[in-house]
Amino acid sequence: MADDAEKRTASPETAGRDYRETVFLPQTDFPMRAGLPQKEPQILARWDEIDLYNAARKARQAQGAPLFVLHDGPPYANGAIHIGHALQKTLKDFVVRSRFAMGYDVDYVPGWDCHGLPIEWKIEEELRSKGRRKDEVSKAEFREKCRAYAGQWIEVQKDGFKRLGVLGDWENRYATMDYGSEAAIVAEFHKFVASNQLYRGSKPVMWSPVERTALADAEVEYHDHVSPTIWVKFPVTQGSDAARNASVVIWTTTPWTIPANRAIAYNEAVAYSVFQVEAMETGLEFEPWAKAGDRLIVADKLVEDVCKAAKIAKWRRIEAVDCRGMVCEHPLAALDTHYAFSVPLLAGDHVTDDAGTGFVHTAPGHGADDYLVWLAHGHREIPETVDADGAYYSHVPLFGGLKVLETEGKKAGKFGPANGAVMDKLIEAGRLLARGRMEHSYPHSWRSKAPVIFRNTPQWFIRMDEPLDTPQHGGRTLRETALEAIEATAFYPEAGRNRIRTMVESRPDWLISRQRAWGAPLAMFVDKETNQPLHDPDVDARIIEAIAAEGADAWFTRPVSDFLGAHDPERYEKVEDILDVWFDSGSTHAFTLEGRENTRWPADLYLEGSDQHRGWFQSSLLESSGTRGRAPYNGILTHGFTMDENGEKMSKSKGNTVDPYQVIKESGAEIIRLWAAMVDYSDDQRIGKTILATTADAYRKLRNTLRYMLGALAGYSDQEAVPLDEMPPLERYILHRLQELDGEVRDAYAAYAFQDVIRPLIAFCQEDLSALFFDVRRDALYCDQPSALRRRAARTVMDAVFERLTIWLAPLMPFTTEEAWTMRFPEAGSNALRVFPETPSAWANPDEAARWAKVQAVTAVVTGALEVERREKRLGAALEAAPVVHINDPALMAAFDGLDPAEVFRTSQATLSAGEGPAHAFRLAEAPAVAVEPLRAQGQKCARSWRILPEVGEDPRYPDLSLRDAEAVAAWDAAHGGAGA
Q1: 160 backbone φψ class: left, alpha, beta (φ>0; ψ -120 to 50)
Q2: Spatial distance between the Cα atoms of 358 and 380, rounded to a whole number of angstroms
Q3: Is the separation of the CB atoms in 729 and 851 below 8 Å?
Q4: Contacts of 366 (CB under 8 A, 6+ apart)
Q5: Most buried among 119, 222, 334, 379, using CB within 10 Å?
Q6: What sign has the CA pseudo-torsion 110, 115, 119, 123?
Q7: Span 539-580, pLDDT tens digits
Q8: CA nearest to 640, candidates 838, 457, 492
Q9: Considering the chain, what percentage of its residues have pLDDT values greater than 70?
Q10: Closest CA to 580 of 506, 500, 522, 505
């Protein structure tokens, strides 16, 4: 804008004197080109010098400010930050900075999750690369390598987060691997032991043979997978006469579980019948396993599907079957007497006739439904057939040692020979009816990406449905306590409430044990006689003291006598499992919010991705509900996932990732921050080159708004200020808009609706400031005398805009607003230490807003008319025009009372006329009451303001100036000893 003014005053048409020095052009050193990659590190260094975060806290505490606590969900200390990290940490910084600006004392301690499989995997890879196996390394050495690895990445990520401008107590960051943290985690675990919420159970859990550990639901994701499918015949040994000559047919996608079969499940609501094979398909390239005369029992609804799979061409129904009391023979019984046991049919609601055969092969050691229906019918013995490495135990006849899943080498994560071996034995026994292949959704470890299996193992669980007789629970179960806590929590967005509620309502008991090395231990002893955990406060205290001093390694390296005291070591089993990492992170509130100064429990807010409804949000909820009877947070904010520009998931293999480091290097962190502010974070967001370019364009417009104000406010002081009752109408309107925006901005920040902050402010800058206020007042700012009311009023309002815009934008764009604020007020301190200024309610002026809505509706018609004239080469600049504006609406005409229409229309002259106007006048359909005759301005062109006016030359001292400009130059000359003095 200033550049346009320079061109104008240097016009070759200027006669005689060059008036450039008399024009009050914007003056500022604030550059148009931001140079953010170079400028931002300088600002960060300045913030470090003043210890900005602690300076803000001390200032608020001195003011007696209310406390706001944001508890950091710990990112995993593994690898450099990615764009998802950048979004999440930036959103957290929006919260921290906006709460500071709203007058709060904000507690935010960044943290890291350090234990768990991903780091173990990295260390195992490192060992393999050096020709060493994990079992050749002591647990202490292995854990030390994990600790060093995590520590390295904490520093890398911390630098990345700080480069984004994230404000927090970085010097006192927390990490789950810190000795004090590990001691606190174990202390939280002991609380569950003491309240009898912990038990050891033998049940099928999701097991990763590749990682050799049990997995919780939150550690499992589902991917498409191709599995073998088999239809297997179980000969009936007990049932009706027709049934005893037939076989029950089951269908499964896990042939390897057949050796573990102990029952067949059916549904009493499903109709089953005996069907006899009459004829087989002909012309096949192989001989089917079924033959004419075979009798099969399947669900009536599925007989056609079964026969199609078995290549049966014709069949007939013999009779209906009542499955109650029916017993079958195991399909492998003929090959080994180990399988010569009865296989009962058990009723179960989980069985349907939607697919398969209507019967469910039941292996209680390898499936949740299988396990539950087995127990429901009074059975307790759970067979163990597959070991921790995903191979059959040696005691399993016919298949001992065969791998279900490969765990090493290039085939790691692939299914081993077990499926094929089982199918071969079923063929040998004459019990395979058909087989095929099927693509379906199958559980995989979210870390190794390898398939998982259900496997019966002894594990430690926290009960979800046991009434708890403690003061904080009052007989409620953990599930009931957690569900009540969900109802008491605020959710942003509200949809998050239903999501986590549904998960908690249906989740099983919390599996918390893992058979790995890198983690906080289940540091307890189990009585070998009673099989119950030892709960002795003195023993627990010695354990906690040792871990606090030496870290979790103390549990694995110290002799048990150091902990047990007077207890007999021979009587107790030392548990060496580690805790689920979700228990670790779910306990962070205990050592980050409790026991520290200037904070409190519970937190006001937890903020993470929407996947954490099943992860950190839920583990924190369960941990705190189990130990304290409520959630550790008052509110939860969730964001969606970051996708590429086409809405596709980012993947290095696709080449569609966005590296935040590269964006910072090329454009600056401020562009990432502005992008994060502009998107609807509650849904999945998109990012890519085109979107970042659009963001950079929005940034430039905001920056230029600040730059223009800095230039126009050069030399401004409070002595120049104009009181509200003397303000012209346009200035009153801008003050009204500030009053409106003040409420909108505060409400949006309070609701964490950052999009509702930045978008109205961008619109305000573009529509109210640049397109209206700055454009209309440009002539007054450049050419009026400094003492002129109109110019002083404009600068007074601009000062109010600058004061508010720089702090309203500061939480979202801290680098640019810091640069602008300190450019104008170098001695005033950091912009980030400011609070939102009060905006007087007297500024509210809805009547003025209504007036300017009408004025702008008329102006739009004038602008349209002038655009036509320019296009047709009849006029050049708007200052060449003197439109006659016909207004056939009294309300629209009244809107111009007290206004100079030429100034409003940005023309040299303008005339308003009541009435319809001539037929040839320009009109717009949306404003039928307005007609414009775009006439050419009459008179001479002022050499200083370029306005064309008849009065130019009337002042003999300045024959090439208008009267206004002549007076302004005369005043300037008088002050500077110039020509007209």
Answers
A1: alpha
A2: 25
A3: yes
A4: 204, 254, 257, 260, 385, 386, 453, 454, 455, 456
A5: 119
A6: positive
A7: 999 999 999 999 999 999 999 999 999 999 999 999 999 999
A8: 492
A9: 97
A10: 522
